[in-house]
What does this fold into?
Amino acid sequence: MKKLLILPILLASSVLSGQISLGVKGGITHSWLQYTEGSYDETADLTVWGANTAVTFNYRFSRLWSLQAEPGWVQRGSKCFPGYVLPIGIDAIFSGNYVTLPLMAQIDVPIYGRLQVFAAAGPSISWLASAKLTRSGYGFGDADDQVERIDFKTDTRYARLDYGATGVAGLGLRVGPGTIQLDTRYYVGIKDVNKALRSRSRNLDFRVGYVFTW
It folds into this structure.
C-alpha cells in the first residue's frame, strides 16, 4: 500500500522537474514620456538612459509554453518634463525609480543545438518608489543644474501606480545547469505619470541574465 502511495508522488516530481526556472537579469533602459501632441517642443530629444534589474520566475507547462513573473526595478523618465513649451529655455528632466512586476506568457523555440529564441508578452504593474527633477538652463546660459527630490506627500502631481503592457524578444544559449539569455523588451504605459496632462511611460530595455532550471 505504501508503495502505491509513493508512486504518484514520484511521478509528480518527475513531471515538475525541469519546469521551474529561476534567474537574474539586468541591463540598461532607454525611456521617455509620450506627451500630448503640441504640448512640448517636438524637435526636442525626450529620451533618457537608466538601469534595470529583475528576478525571473518561470513555470513551464508544455514543451514550448511557460508563464513568467519578473519582479524588479527600473529607472524611467523623460526630458522636457512636464512637456510644456517654455520661452526661457528651462529643461526639466524627470527621473523615477520604479518597482515593477510583469506577468507574461512565454514561448521558447529551439533553433540549433543549445540555441533558442523566445518571446513573451503580458500585463505589467509598477510603483513609483522615488523620483527627482533636474532643471537646467533657466535662460542664463551655463547656470548650474538644480535637483529637486520629489516629496509625494506634498507634491500630488504624480501618479505613483502605473500599469501597461510588456513585450519581449530574445535569444537563449544553454550553458551548464541553465541558460544565458539576452533580450529586448518594450513597455507601454497607459496611465499618465503627471496627472495634469497626457504623459505616459515608454521604455525600451536591453537585458542579459542567467536562468537556472530544475
Q: What stands out?
A: The two ends are 30 Å apart (CA to CA).
